[in-house]
Specification:
The complex is a heterodimer of chains A (311) and B (294).
Chain A (H helix, E strand, L loop, with lengths): L1 H13 L3 H26 L7 H17 L5 H23 L4 H21 L1 H4 L12 E2 L2 E2 L3 H23 L2 H11 L1 H6 L4 H27 L9 H14 L4 H17 L3 H19 L3 H21 L1
Antiparallel strand pairs in A: 1-2
Helix pairs in contact in A: 1-7, 2-7, 2-10, 2-11, 2-12, 3-4, 3-5, 3-10, 4-10, 11-12, 11-13, 11-14, 12-14
Chain B lengths: L2 H33 L6 H18 L4 H24 L7 H23 L15 E3 L2 E3 L1 H23 L1 H11 L1 H6 L4 H27 L5 H16 L4 H21 L5 H15 L14
Antiparallel strand pairs in B: 1-2
Helix pairs in contact in B: 1-5, 1-8, 1-9, 1-10, 2-3, 2-4, 2-8, 2-9, 3-8, 5-6, 5-8, 6-8, 9-10, 9-11, 10-11
Classes of the chains: A mainly alpha (311), B mainly alpha (294).
């Protein structure tokens, strides 16, 4: 944890080009999304194929309230989070009673519909022409108007939310989740309210997405519905799987890898879907713990080698 | 056009589109019945069937009576391949792993389609011409009838297969109780393979027959899959009749909604219906399976 914080803090010094700061800001924002989604996928064992919708809700609520109605960005982000939580409840409560693919399809549908609604209600959202003039954020007068300042702001939030996730995993809720994973029936009979926990985690992951969305809106100062589609939702799932289901750091790693790949390989956008599909299939079949899991296993080898030498 | 004619027109389009949803839903249902897996790539089977038929007829200049079965045959093999390559090798399957893998297949196939056929929607020539058929003030084209015919043939064919052939009965046995079936000497893996292949065939047939009416592009599989799933839920997951009824009904309701309420929100109707069903009566119309889980 401390390592990541130090790495994140030192990174800007290492970067030669100011442009890369943008990439890492986006990685940070997406890391928030992915850590949240990982809670849902890795711990609650559910899958959301429409997380971009919650991201969009966060971004657009923040954007519309601040750009058009001149709200304070902090209150707008709060309202956005509440609205997103409500949407998650509406989708989650009926579907989480049932098997995983119901939530998967429901979120797939929500993702498509939210994007369509944003395009349709162009009077409010700017539709396909985009929503412009979103103001920046300031912390008691300290304006976050340079990339460097925003970079630190985003990554502080990433660290805070990640720490929160780790805390959650080690708390009652986290233990309940692991109980559910081992045996749903046993957990139920031990008094664990399985559905309630699943819904809570789903809503939490949606709120994480909303926060990321609000940050995104205030960073880009511009939103358009095209960036919130099914493609992004799938990318998020790929990031979770690549990093390692259930591995909190894996989430950040996954976000970083996919974004860096997209940056450096220009053909990535064309071959993207094919590669993503393969990643999903191959990772699940051969590397279910993801790359972070692999790193973990390699980490375990080192003490074992040392022991071998001693004896 | 008076309101009765308008209604009739919506019904015609609705039943036609609904037939496609019905066939897609059937594809979902037979795999679900055999394996409790939801095949997220089902929509892609439909899309690829259409795209292949288009390539066979326009680029390779094959006649339709050859292109149709050939496309279906290829996707039948693909269905089996998806099971064999991506699902059978899974060491410790869990629901989320299965979902991720079938979603991965869906994305992969979509990506491949985009690379091969590009981003435009392509069209297939109608089976027997475009001469409109007028019934009063309601206009249809022969292709509408073809869609319904293919649906009927598929349903009848499936019925005969499942009830009169040994393989079909074996597949039903596996769906009902895999362990018992295995003990009776049925190769469960093979039956599952056949189920996936059959699902591919259904999807491809649906795709080829609807392509002249709606055109087909690499991205359309996703929406079809989603609506097919909604239809399967609406009818009652696990029930073949439910899948068909659900599909046709969603097609009708969707078109009525588009016509009377709002055409831009057309795609949302199927989904809203599904959510309503899940809220009110999760087992759907016919509702055979107990699906409330802890």
């Amino acid at each position: 944890m401390v390592l990541v914080a130090i790495a994140a803090a030192l990174l800007p010094k290492a970067l030669t080009n100011q442009y890369y700061l943008t990439v890492f800001i986006i990685i940070g924002i997406q890391a928030i999304l992915v850590v949240g989604l990982n809670l849902l996928m890795g711990y609650a064992g559910q899958i959301s194929l429409g997380h971009a919708a919650f991201y969009a809700l966060g971004a657009y609520f923040s954007g519309v309230l601040t750009a058009i109605h001149h709200w304070n960005p902090w209150s707008a982000a709060l309202v956005a989070a509440v609205a997103t939580a409500l949407m998650a409840l509406i989708v989650g409560i009926p579907t989480l009673k049932l098997e995983g693919h119901y939530l998967a399809m429901a979120t797939l549908g929500i993702g498509i519909i939210i994007q369509k609604l944003i395009e349709e209600f162009s009077g409010i959202t700017g539709g396909n022409n985009g929503l412009t003039n979103i103001p920046g954020i300031s912390l008691r007068g300290f304006e976050l108007n340079t990339d460097l300042r925003f970079y630190y702001f985003v990554w502080v939030i990433v660290i805070v939310l990640t720490a929160l996730s780790i805390h959650l995993i080690h708390s009652r809720v986290g233990r309940a989740c692991r109980a559910i994973h081992s045996s749903r029936l046993a957990a139920h009979h031990m008094g664990v309210n399985v559905q309630k926990i699943k819904v809570q985690i789903f809503v939490l992951s949606a709120v994480y997405a909303s926060i990321a969305g609000s940050l995104y809106g205030h960073y880009q100062r511009y939103l358009d519905p095209g960036s919130f589609g099914f493609g992004l939702s799938i990318q998020l799932v790929v990031m979770v799987v690549l990093g390692g289901l259930g591995n909190v750091w894996g989430g950040i790693l996954g976000a970083a890898i996919i974004n860096l790949l997209t940056e450096y390989i220009s053909k990535f956008t064309e071959y993207g879907p094919v590669i993503f599909g393969l990643i999903l299939i191959v990772m699940v079949l051969f590397m279910p713990k993801g790359i972070a899991g692999l790193a973990g296993r390699l980490g375990n080898l080192i003490p074992r080698l040392r022991e071998g030498k001693a004896s | 056009m008076n309101s009765l004619d308008r209604l009739a027109q919506y019904l015609v389009t609705g039943i036609t589109q609904g037939s496609i949803y019905a066939m897609t839903a059937l594809g979902f249902t037979i795999i679900y019945n055999a394996t409790t897996i939801i095949n997220f790539a089902q929509g892609e089977f439909v899309m690829l069937g259409a795209m292949l038929a288009i390539t066979f007829t326009t680029v390779l200049h094959m006649p339709l009576w050859l292109a149709f079965p050939l496309s279906v045959a290829v996707i039948t093999l693909l269905g089996g391949l998806v099971y064999g390559a991506a699902l059978a090798p899974m060491r410790s399957p869990s629901p989320i792993k299965l979902i991720i893998v079938t979603v991965g297949c869906s994305i992969f196939l979509k990506g491949v389609a985009m690379l091969i056929w590009g981003k435009e929607a392509l069209t297939l020539t109608s089976f027997s011409g475009d001469e409109p058929i007028k019934m009063g003030n309601v206009v249809m084209v022969p292709q509408h009838l073809w869609v319904i015919l293919i649906l009927l043939i598929s349903v009848l064919g499936l019925n005969i297969f499942y009830t009169r052939t040994i393989t079909g009965k074996a597949m039903r046995a596996c769906a009902s109780n895999p362990r018992a079936a295995g003990l009776m000497g049925i190769d469960v893996h093979r039956m599952t393979l056949f189920t996936w292949a059959l699902s591919g065939a259904l999807g491809a047939a649906a795709g080829v027959v609807i392509a002249p009416l709606t055109m087909m592009g690499y991205h359309m599989g996703t929406m079809l899959g989603l609506k097919g799933f909604c239809a399967a839920i609406f009818g009652g997951l696990g029930s073949n009749i439910g899948a068909i009824a659900g599909g046709v009904l969603i097609g009708i309701l969707e078109n009525l909604g588009a016509g009377y309420i709002s055409s831009s929100l057309k795609d949302a109707f199927a989904f809203v219906i599904m959510l309503l069903v899940l809220f009110v009566r999760p087992s759907g119309l016919v509702g055979t399976k107990e699906i409330e889980r802890v």
